[in-house]
Amino acid sequence: MSYDKFVSEYLSKGLIQKQKSSITDVERLLIRSIKDLKTARANLKIDEGIAYTVAYLAMLRAGRAFMLLKGFRPSDGYQHKTVVEFMYQVLGKEYRDIIEHFDRMRRKRNIFTYEIDITISYTEVVNALHSGEIFVDLIMELVKKENPQECLKL
After folding, report:
1. What are 16's strand-pairing partners?
2. Is the pTM of this model over 0.90?
3. What is the b/e burial string over 9-41, where b = at least 16 CB atoms within 10 angstroms of the residue's CB?
4. I need a labelling partner for 3 at 20 to 30 A (CA). Which of 99, 108, 119, 121 fits?
């Protein structure tokens, strides 16, 4: 499916909506993503579940930053899933592995948040942090490429 067809379909389903954006708003989301990664690292020795959740949030906010750059925001009840699908559509097969990890993190974060007994291992968190760092860096590069005249304060 082409990007234009994806956007048209998701707009018609009400899964995304147009959003007026500014580079300042995109930058603020990316700064928050970087802070989330730092927070996740700091929590790794205290609570693996929280560290995992915050690493996921870093990816979610970076994805939302990119959507905003493109003039969209997720809407309806599937916002997290919509961000993952939007990013897969934009990044394509070349980044399939990281997007699939992002999606697994989305599902596991949801279970961790709402279920009583779930454990997240130290290794899972380390892998989540690694994916989060790669993803946030990738989004920052894409934002810089699309706005070379803007000087991001990251």
Report:
1. 74
2. yes
3. ebeeeebbeeeebebeebbebbebbbebbebbb
4. 108
- With residue 18 as reference, give the H or E element that holds it: strand 16-18
Residue range 1-29: average pLDDT?
94
Establish how many alpha carbons lie within 13 A of residue 57's alpha carbon, considering only the half-sphere containing its beta carbon: 19
CA distances in angstroms from 79 to 16, 42, 43, 45, 127, listed in the order given: 8, 27, 26, 30, 24
Q: What does the alpha-carbon distance between residue 70 and residue 65 come to, in Å, rounded to a whole number?
A: 9
Residue keyed to tokens 């990013």: 87
Confidence class of residue 1 from pLDDT cuts 50, 70 and 90? confident
The confidence score (pLDDT) of residue 76 equals: 80
